[in-house]
Specification:
One of its GO terms (biological process) is response to antibiotic. Keywords: Antibiotic resistance, ATP-binding, Cell inner membrane, Cell membrane, Membrane, Nucleotide-binding, Transmembrane, Transmembrane helix, Transport. InterPro entries: AAA+_ATPase, ABC_transporter-like_ATP-bd, ABC_transporter-like_CS, ABC_transpr_LolD-like, MacB-like_ATP-bd, P-loop_NTPase. One of its GO terms (molecular function) is ATP binding. The model has no long low-confidence stretch (mean pLDDT 88). Helix content is 39%, strand content 27%. With 247 residues, it is an alpha/beta fold. Strand 7, helix 7 and strand 8 form a beta-alpha-beta unit. It has one domain: P-loop containing nucleotide triphosphate hydrolases (Rossmann fold, 3-Layer(aba) Sandwich). The structure holds adenosine-5'-triphosphate and magnesium ion.
């Protein structure tokens, strides 16, 4: 597809000229201690992600993809190295400052959805904007309804998570991630439990946000089709980057 080729070419040019990286990673490592001693989950990762680009992180189960995503998003702290997200060195921020950065500019879709069980689908989607307390309640509700409509859940707005299927919960999680129009969207297997048709609709929605708002997408995926639509793919093998956007 010519459009995809052109985008990938432009992405390479922007990387070569190092245009406004939104995420910069240097020598990033994550080690944990378990019963058998010290375990290295991520080892010396270097990565640079340009503003407005889309990057797929791929690799076998257990290779460290979710761990990397959590570190990039400031949800977890590194054992070594550095992550700059939107110009801020994450290791220099305290937990409150990291939370403020996340709630302002970053959206997440977790591998395990993490919806609030005592809130309805609509309330879950409204939550990030309600927490910011900047937008009138009625406008928040309207935005959340519009997003639930876009992910095909306009008939399920009053349902609690436990009454929704796995794929439906995932779509609520996506709508919740989009509601703040984040500058960076991190998504861990966003199409993992969706059928093909719903998966395509979700992928379209993510790329539409990427184009319209200049949002940067960082996606962990096993879905070849989704990876190919991204500007670049990085592959992790046993905690090391084996190709991709090293610097
Ligand atoms: N807190 C922890 N303590 C011990 N081991 C951990 C911890 N967190 C992750 N691991 C291990 O690190 C490795 C990488 O985990 P991670 O969840 O990042 O993999 P993944 O690539 O996302 O896999 P999947 O595709 O199955 O989701 C796994 O072997 C996992 O068991
Ligand atoms: Mg994972």
């Amino acid at each position: 597809m010519a459009g995809t080729k052109l985008r990938k070419f432009l992405f390479k040019v922007s990387m070569q000229n190092n245009i406004e990286p939104v995420i910069e990673v240097r020598g990033l490592s994550k080690r944990v201690n378990d019963a058998t001693g010290e375990l290295t989950i991520l080892d010396q990762i270097d990565l640079s992600i340009a503003k407005g680009s889309s990057v797929a992180i791929v690799g076998a189960s257990g290779s460290g993809k979710s761990t990397l995503l959590g570190l990039l998003a400031g949800l977890d702290s590194a054992s070594g190295g550095s992550v700059r997200l939107l110009g801020k060195e994450l290791s220099t921020l305290n937990e409150d400052e990291r939370a403020a950065l996340r709630s302002g500019a970053v959206g997440f879709v977790f591998q395990s959805f993490q919806l609030m069980p005592h809130l309805t689908a609509l309330e879950n989607v409204m939550l990030p904007l309600e927490l910011r307390a900047e937008t009138p309640h009625s406008e928040i509700a309207a935005r959340a309804r519009a997003l639930l409509d876009q992910v095909g859940l306009s008939q399920r707005t009053g349902h609690y998570p436990k009454l929704l299927s796995g794929g439906e919960q995932q779509r609520v999680a996506l709508a919740r991630a989009f509601v703040t129009h984040p500058a960076v969207l991190f998504a861990d297997e966003p199409t993992g439990s969706l059928d093909a048709a719903t998966g395509y609709a979700i992928i379209d929605l993510m790329f539409e946000m990427n184009r319209r708002n200049g949002a940067t997408l960082v996606l962990v995926t096993h879905d070849q089709e989704l990876a190919e639509r991204c500007d670049a793919t990085v592959t992790i093998e046993a905690g090391r980057l084996v190709n991709g956007l090293g610097v």
